[in-house]
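hey
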């Protein structure tokens, strides 16, 4: 399984960024996909997930600001982040749960998102 994130960067508070994750080596259409993030000095935390059947889940901290979506033909998952806040600053990790099993996921290498105030 290979996950490659892209789209991170530096943005001012109130701005937007879109993260993408390209997946390979997995049956994408039957996998759940998700995003986690890890801020300096903190544990990795759930951000959003989308099931194989397009059901979406969000952390309270991002509900209404972030949107997760998937494209099964391109085997990619996207996290659209709007109204960004400095507390959204973190390394964002894409992950995949193969075979529609919410067990141990596979992880990407992460992409840095920095929101300046």
């Amino acid at each position: 399984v290979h996950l490659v994130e892209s789209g991170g960067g530096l943005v001012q508070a109130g701005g937007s960024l879109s993260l993408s994750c390209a997946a390979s080596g997995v049956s994408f259409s039957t996998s759940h996909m998700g995003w986690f993030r890890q801020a300096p000095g903190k544990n990795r935390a759930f951000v959003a997930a989308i099931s194989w059947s397009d059901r979406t889940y969000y952390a309270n901290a991002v509900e209404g600001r972030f949107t997760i979506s998937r494209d099964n033909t391109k085997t990619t998952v996207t996290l659209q982040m709007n109204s960004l806040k400095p507390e959204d600053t973190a390394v964002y990790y894409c992950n995949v749960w193969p075979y529609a099993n919410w067990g141990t996921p596979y992880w990407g290498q992460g992409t840095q998102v920095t929101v300046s105030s």
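The chain has a mean pLDDT of 96. The first strand starts at residue 2 and ends at 6.
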